[in-house]
Predict the structure.
Amino acid sequence: MKIAVLPGDGIGTEIVAEAVKVLNVLELPFEMETALVGGAAYEAHGHPLPDSTLNLARAADAILFGAVGDWKYDTLDRPLRPEQAILGLRKNLGLFANFRPAICYEELVGASSLKPELISGLDILIIRELTGDIYFGQPRGRRIATDGHFPGAEEAFDTMRYSRPEIERIAHVAFQAAQKRSKRVTSVDKANVLETFQFWKDVVTEVSKQYPDVALDHMYVDNAAMQLVKEPKRFDVVVTGNMFGDILSDEASMLTGSIGMLPSASLNSQNQGLYEPSHGSAPDIAGKNIANPLATILSAAMMLRFSLNQPQAADRIESAVKAVLASGVRTTDIWSQGTTKVSTREMGDAVVAAITKTITKG
Ligand code: IPM
Ligand code: MG
């Protein structure tokens, strides 16, 4: 089993190191190879996604990714910015299906800014389409002009588009995921204003006819944003486009107590996957050993389950995380009165210790 490890920038290197530590303790036959990506790759090779990194990712069974980006790259031409590395990986590997589960651990009910009764028992699965939409339309603006033709542009635009096959395949993913859960899908769109999302709604509705056992409802994205904080437990599987999924998954993460808790899996049609925390590189706290590594550790568990066919190892990691939270160990972002504040590395160590305990117990 080959894992490409791409830590990236900012807290990426710190949190990925903890996930690697956790993977190593499982004593499975992994081959892990690390490469530079994002700003770190730009510094070393002049490009955020060098061919060597892309080829390593292509050849791997799974990719463990940290985060990319730093404000210091804000003035670079867009194709050279760190974010292009993750977008390039998603596009080149065809990772169209992004799973972002938002699960509220009972121990963290108090860490959310919402009332406990609203989020206790929360378990939402956001399925975000990841290789289409306005993210991969045609951008035009000042910064993209490397040839000097737009020196004082008066406008900028990005085109929003979806093709029928792109919507169909993500709809199938959502309905099949719902069949394994509570058999409800909410499709989020902006069909009242955008042609692209009227089309989205129509195609999702057509696909739903193949899944008579799953109930489908539609919601406008502004309403969905509101309902997520008003009555989050009304949702089960949420399927939406790339842009709305980006925004709603950040919102949903806070229902779970911290964005530092939210893992994600991005799969292609061969079940090859990239696994990354849903959060970013957080340059403001980078290098301080305070970031929460749990989203990345939980992403590693998703990797074992979805791409490496090791569901028991995945369970072991997830149980260890629950045990650690139950023991009151917390990084700063989820800390509350009466719990023990630990560093990034100490959190990783605590998960490793919890796994070792279950291994010795048999
Ligand atoms: C995410 C991030 C990325 C996105 C950025 C870093 C390009 O916000 O994975 O949610 O917008 O998709
Ligand atoms: Mg995002």
User: Anything to note?
Assistant: The first strand starts at residue 2 and ends at 8. The two ends are 24 Å apart (CA to CA). The pocket of magnesium ion (ligand 2) is lined by residues 246, 250 (CB under 6 Å). Residues 1-96+268-362 form a domain with the Isopropylmalate Dehydrogenase fold (CATH 3.40.718.10).
